[in-house]
Amino acid sequence: MRRVDLTLEPEGSFPVPTANGYQVYSAILSALDDVNKDISTRVHDSSIGSLTNSGLLGTFDGSRRDHHKRVICDETYNLKMGVADSRDQEVFQALADAFVFSDDTLELADGDFRVRDFASTNTTHAEILEDASEIVTQHDDTFEIEVRFETPTCVKESGEITTMFPHRGSVFRSLLRKWSSTIPDKRADELELAMTREDFEANLIEKPDAGTYETHSVLVNRGEDGGPILRQGFTIDCTYKFKDASEATRTAVTALALFSDYAGVGGFVSRGCGTVSVEVGR
After folding, report:
1. N or C end of the chain, less CB within 10 A?
2. What is the rounded distance in angstroms from the CA atom of residue 154 to the CA atom of residue 94?
3. Tell me, what DSSP letter sits at residue 267?
4. Which helix (H) or strand (E) holds 54?
5. CA–CA separation, 149 and 277 (whole Å)
6. CA distances in angstroms from 156 to 1, 61, 104, 145, 183, listed in the order given
7. Percent of the chain, pLDDT > 70?
């Protein structure tokens, strides 16, 4: 797994959609397509959302255009990407080729960004489990997991219905599914986490910060007629605390929280949804 952080500098001031993850996703695919069409196609066709994309993170001005905001020319912006694909090295290399070695420009509809910094970290499921075990060993069962849901998070509950609250069962069940779908087949028995939604609900308490709560309607795709396909999501700061949880449960939950930094939470993560930042063990 890889996490890639880009620092971007706009070439002028121009409007971008308020929820710009979908537009940024299109720009990323276009850049990948220029260097490796097979990788671009695989990322686009992935059923698990193997690439996470935060969209543009930073400070913006208002815009006269509806549902848009304006990039500030002398500001810098961050773009976080995660690669949970089992062939992550190929995707990472294509991203590096696109934004470092071939061309350092991210081209959006109304303006471009220059890539001023490209940084990455990598890990494996096994290393995440080792880190989680070490954290649990170093702390008692009262340690907390602080999650900042930075971009609109769309966790599917039933059909096309998404939850509008960072419920422990919904959030960690979603992460468990992503974990199970991305672990290497050869190590599935070793790395599988034997948890259920009921386990999360019985052993965790969520403590959302109401002052940071916002709801969103996000463009995630377009229909055959070109019409927008929207999904509902939330952003919030939320703390998860253990309640009478065993060491194995605390390790599994902590591992999933660390994993979310790479895989995102919920659906449509490639379109700018579900980017989180996590602090564990404080």
Report:
1. C
2. 28
3. B
4. none
5. 7
6. 24, 32, 35, 22, 21
7. 96
Backbone angles phi, psi at 135, to 5 degrees: -60, -45
Dihedral sign computed on CA atoms, order 167, 168, 170, 175: positive
56-102 pLDDT, tens digit each: 999 999 999 999 999 999 999 999 999 886 666 788 888 889 898 87
Beta bridge partners of 65: none
* Backbone conformation region of residue 12, classed left if phi is above 0, alpha if psi is from -120 to 50, else beta: left
Q: With contact defined as beta carbons under 8 Å apart, do 257 and 179 qualify? A: no
Amino acid at 96: A
pLDDT at 269 over 70: yes
What DSSP character marks residue 59?
Answer: -
Q: Based on C-alpha coordinates, what's the Rg of the chain?
A: 19
> Cα separation of 85 and 159, whole Å?
25
Distance in angstroms (rounded) separating the CA atoms of residues 35 and 97: 7
Residues 188-228 have pLDDT tens digits of 889 999 999 999 999 999 999 999 999 999 988 888 888 88
